[in-house]
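ok trying this again, last paste got cut off
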Amino acid sequence: MWFWLWTGLIAAWLAAAFLLLRWLWRQAKGLMEALGAAAVMADELPGGAGFAGSVLPAVALSATAEELAERRDGRRGRIARRRALRQARHQAAYDSWAVLAGYKDG
């Protein structure tokens, strides 16, 4: 009895895995076709700009050392600003809870 139960469960699991993977494959294939069509349409834009005129950053392999250092410094600056803002929010929350708990005077 257990043999047939486990056999049925394993067969159902394999069938479900197959159907899920087939669905994922078809979704990915459709996405790749849509991206290919979008790339073709972008290349046909007036002025021949295509992806060359986009605001996307240049590939790191073609960037100079100065450009890479500038990007790194900018990224570190943005991270530091976000960290400082987050710390200020957290400190305000800690202070308000400390006042409510009576550890600190308001």
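PB: full thing came through this time. Residues 59-106 form one domain.
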